[in-house]
Amino acid sequence: MALYVISHHHQISKHIINKCRRAARYFMERCDIDTHQVNIVLTTDEEIRDLNFRFRKIDAATNVLSFPFEEPDDSAVHLLSPKELGDIVISFDRAVQESQTYNQPLQQRLNWLIVHGFLHLIGYDHERSEKDAEIMLKKEHDLLNEYKNQRRVLMPHLAVNVDHVATIREARGIIEPDPVTAAAVCELAGAQGIVVHLREDRRHIQDRDVRILRETVKTKLNLEMGAAQEIIEFALDVKPDMVTLVPEKRKELTTEGGLNIVSQKKKIARTIGKMTKANIPVSLFIDPDLKQIKAAADVGATFVEIHTGAYADATNESLQFDEFELIRTAAEEAHLLGLRVNAGHGLGYTNTAAIAAIDPIEELSIGHAIISRSVFSGLEQAVRDMCEIVESGSFY
Length: 396
Description:
Mean pLDDT: 88
Structural class: alpha/beta
CATH architecture of the largest domain: Alpha-Beta Barrel
Radius of gyration: 23 Å
Low-confidence stretches: 71-82
CATH superfamily of the largest domain: Aldolase class I
Number of strands: 12
Number of domains: 2
Oligomer: single chain
Order of helices and strands: EHEHEEHHHEHHEHEHEHEHEHHEHEHH
């Protein structure tokens, strides 16, 4: 999905842009156009009036205009990107005015204008006939009601981190056990994603592992990585399905805590920019801290993965509940800001169900617990047991 929400209006906050982006993503998915590129511009009455006059010869402002991407003549057809759908231009001034007139929340009015613009782009036209107007109005109401009342349609899913398989291999410096084979077993057992962390010191996963996994993983390959130039260039070459930026220290046994995005916004934004140009979605591994959530939205991340380590390590129920509440609040705030939400770190067979039940969370990344259990039960059964917990929300 290539979706760009752009503001040409000084009164529009990033919070509003993120909410519009979240709504637009949902409508694109529901309209089966999530493989296309759409640009949404929030602008002034003056600018939309100018566009209305130039393209429709109507000298007046309006609330929304849609500009489908038109195919060039046959001689230039090879220049057409098949995924380009078009542009939607919305008057923010008119949206504010209409929200007051109709006694609607501003975001609800903006959502209607976004839906209206999308439907025009894909061929609906209320001006053709009364019947067409009725069809379009019903579609608008259906989409808006679905969005308003939406709950998670799909259950969260499991992505298995196979780093520890490589750790065992590297302990002996031989070729077994093979993390690529482990990934295939995990997928056959129901995992819907494979995660590997390519560290600068190559302590477990090696470059060759990632390249082979890129060719063999059938679900989704998530490459965890630090924002080091060498690793960035490797990721751009291999093109995993997504990357997760994590903090990385040479002496740590495993990743300790989330990224501090607030203190390195420019660096992270540059990395995200490079990945975005290569059509690689970026997730940021962060603590359940609202400042970091907001910073993640500011720098243009697609996902956040909320660090669940403190929750997993809690020594009593009271501490665990407090950490759970931080995770739940962070997930909901990220969702409101237009971010997609994953979670992981330290989760096992007795503490995953509660996290899986948090509505915005789409995916749980789990590795050590599964590989540990596989010593006794076999890898396939260990994955199946965890899939059941994640998908049912019940304890093992």
